[in-house]
Design a protein that fits this description.
single chain; about 290 residues; alpha+beta; six-stranded antiparallel sheet; five-stranded antiparallel sheet; 23 strands
Length: about 290
């Protein structure tokens, strides 16, 4: 019995050691995987010419330029750090009202570089098929409240602070080898669709992380050799009649579901790209903003 216990503890120790060592080499490994998984440059160039656009991803732009909305834009002219108020001049955020009373949905009009549109492409029998996508952020239906002199946003148990939604113009088959290797631009950063993706799970690879998205589960990030659940979010994947993916979204909330206090900030737990900030309350009017985490 003791020998068996020692053996199991030994195996556990080895697995822990492998995981720790893997976590140190992940950034280099992720970058190498990112390069290795990218679609062939000649094929990508053919897609670009067929689509008659300036670029499909950053690699097709000059150095110090990025591909945004299929145009090469100087990085100095892009601003993924931009933030917007959830109030408007005609509709301020008053204590006692929901924070989405003035703005329920944010689009590329509000945050052009964080929520830029894009496309993935495929050629079938010489015909170009486009899968356009237009990401949006939906603001949760949570109210600003006050107890004594303390102001806070009360989070509902069944709600989220905000929801990031990715909708395609045509259902996408994520198991298609011609789709895999292409990129999705997510919150100002490129993610390659991994070859292990299918219509049950989407695996996305950037230069420094790997993310797994599965329906009705928490998003996962790879740490060393294993994917680890990330708390405070839930993934939703919508499929069409053919089983291909029409849309996926991620609802973000605090891990402990505690209220958001005045002068508190929340940063998304997966992409580390969005910051939600409850800045202050002045004469019962709240200053709440959302945008890039910079």
């Amino acid at each position: 019995m003791k020998k068996k216990l020692k053996f199991l503890l030994g195996i556990l120790g080895i697995l822990i050691l492998i995981s720790i060592v893997g976590s140190f080499i992940l950034p280099k490994t992720a970058f190498a995987i990112y390069q290795d998984k990218a679609v062939d440059k000649n094929y990508l160039e053919n897609l670009k010419l067929k689509a008659n656009v300036e670029c499909l991803q950053n690699s097709q732009c000059p150095e110090s330029f990025e591909c945004v909305d299929n145009k090469c834009i100087n990085k100095n002219k892009t601003n993924i750090c931009q933030k917007v108020k959830l109030s408007t001049n005609s509709k301020p955020l008053e204590v006692g009202e929901p924070i989405n009373i003035a703005k329920k949905v944010l689009t590329s009009i509000d945050l052009p570089y964080l929520l830029s549109d894009g496309k993935i492409l495929k050629i079938i029998d010489g015909e170009l098929i486009e899968y356009l996508y237009s990401p949006v952020i939906l603001i949760g239906d949570n109210k600003i409240e006050r107890t004594n002199e303390e102001y806070f946003i009360k989070l509902k148990n069944d709600s989220f602070i905000y929801l990031y939604r990715f909708t395609f113009s045509n259902p996408v088959d994520f198991s298609d080898k011609e789709i895999q290797g292409q990129i999705l631009r997510i919150l100002g950063k490129e993610y390659i669709i991994d070859s292990k993706s299918n219509n049950s799970k989407i695996i996305l690879i950037s230069t420094d992380k790997e993310i797994k998205l599965e329906n009705r589960k928490k998003a996962k990030i790879k740490k060393g050799l294993f994917f680890i659940d990330i708390e405070g979010n839930i993934v939703n994947v919508v499929r069409g009649k053919d089983g291909n993916i029409v849309m996926f979204d991620i609802g973000f909330s605090k891990q402990d579901k505690e209220n958001i206090k005045n002068k508190e900030k929340y940063t998304d737990s997966i992409f580390d790209a969005v910051e939600f900030s409850f800045n202050d309350v002045n004469e019962e009017l709240a200053d709440i903003r959302i945008g890039g985490n910079c």
